[in-house]
Amino acid sequence: MIELKNISFKKDNKIILDNINLKLEDKKFYCLTGPNGSGKSTLAKIIMGIEHPNSGKIYLNGEDITDKSIDERAKLGIAFAFQQPVRFKGITVFDLLKFATSKNITRKDACEYLSKVGLCALEYVDREVNASLSGGELKRIEIATIIARNPSVAIFDEPEAGIDLWSFQNLNTVFKELGATSKGVTLVISHQERILDIADEIILLEQGHITKTGTSKEMLDSLLCEAKCCKKVIK
Amino acid sequence: MNKVDEALLTEVLGDNSEKADAINIRKNGESIKRSVSPYIDIVSKKDKSGIDIIVKDNVKFGIVHIPVIITESGLTDVVYNDFYIGKNSNVIIMAGCGIHNDLHKDSEHDGIHRFFLSENSKVKYVEKHYGEGKGDGKRVLNPTTEIYMKSGSSMTMDSVQIKGVDDTIRITKAELAENTTLVVNEKILTNNAQTAKTEFNIELNGENASTHVTSRSVATDDSYQEFKSNITGNTKCYAHVECDAIIKDNGKVKAIPEIYAGSVDANLIHEAAIGKIAGEQLLKLMSLGLSEKDAEAAIIEGFLK
Q: What was the pLDDT predicted at A234?
């Protein structure tokens, strides 16, 4: 379980997050959604330790982790899939999966993680994680590194961003399985109805505030209604 | 050979030291071990220090090792080695130099290697340079490689200098005839006050000649590196040069690209990128549980792999 208490974050004198209070429980799949610039990625990065709040506290299973570094949080079980997966020169998919598991995995282990995200493992395991991989391939490899960590808190920042429809359908299957099997917290930042649909709970973030939370059914109806009303106004 | 010699050889050859068809080991300016095969000969030069390595025509697959080790402080060893590769032959050649210098005088090895590739021959040339020792005498390595490629031949040159070499000037020259391919992969890491200068002069003279030169380097502490490439395309040909460098601490890198198209059909590309380790790469590896120091080491190790 991870808990955020009174988290606020400012950048360039602009309030990005304003007094966020949030409790995320194990075995639950959460979707964090909201307009662009509402602070979703910042909130996720604050949990991972990539950004540091100006005030407030973060607790992981009751332990205050506010001052812990990224790698310390990773060792405690927090994992973060970047919205734009990072490219390397020379580091292979196998290397990345080996770092992710923190042990000497075999090629067979690596192939299993890749198969889980729908990649034909033998084609990818020795490839460099560089610009020769497509956006969809990089996204899936990024997700495979998170699955390989078997984290207690898995955060995915817009996993659908920048990928094609076919890759997205595969990803959706991956998240459905993750939602059904993960024993920890799963937090996905997404705008996609089909990902929102599989969430146990949806959190709406607007202008740095959590404005609504609720089950997928409750929230989807109101969110979709708002979107349709908005379209009507624009027309 | 003593333990220091054996350790130096392992650094240069890896675990492959016993797997060659023809071998010449040179220590402190003298040949200390030589073996040849019916199809690969090694002959000492009569007019100067060095050897001729002669690979007969149609050798399907051969391995040649010609490592150099220097353990004598203050020695300057200059050697001229010529490689004659027969038609349709395919060989792997492992060379390089390991210097152990525990004293205060400089030790230097200048290896001038010339490759003459006959029609349709194929060479993989692996060259590793390494230095060690507690002395403040410099470990200096200045390799010059000249490559002359006849029609249909191809060569891959993997050049590595990762540790312990204080000063180096590396010069590679090549002339390519038609339908030839030259691939060069260079990896250099410098630290402390080391300097490394590397220069490529490649002329593509025959139709459909192509070359791909990749240099990856890391300059740390107060070290300095210079990469100079001069590619000339005189006909329908293709060249791609990539210089990629990571700088750390006070490390400095200069890249000087020069490409000259002497024909309207020449297609020449030069790319150079110098910068520190990308912050997002560190963040990603740290988010997988690596400390900042370990993440940095993993990125550099991968980059130079």
A: 46
Interface of A with B in 86-115 (CB under 8 A): 86, 88-92, 95-96, 99-100, 102
- Enumerate residues 6+ apart whose C-beta is below 8 A from B24: B31, B33, B34, B42, B51, B53, B65, B66
DSSP H or E stretch at residue B198: strand B195-204
- Interface touch B302/A95, C-beta < 8 Å: yes
Q: Mutating which of A52, A69, A78, A99 best tests the B interface, going by the most B Cβ atoms within 10 A?
A: A99
Q: Please tell me the pTM assigned to this model.
A: 0.86
Check pLDDT > 50 for residue B230: yes
pLDDT the model gives residue B164: 86
In CATH, what class is A14-42+153-235?
A: alpha beta
Q: What is the pLDDT of residue A6?
A: 97
Question: Residues A74-83: what's their mean pLDDT?
Answer: 96
- Our CA angle for B299, B304, B305, nearest 5°, is 95
Contacting residues of A for B290, CB less than 8 Å apart: 71, 99
SS3 assignment for B46-112: CCCCEEEEEECCCCCCEEEECCEEECCCCCEEEEEEEEEECCCCEEEEEEEEEEECCCCCCEEEEEE
| Extents of the domains making up chain A | 14-42+153-235, 86-151
- Min Cα distance A213 → chain B (Å) is 28
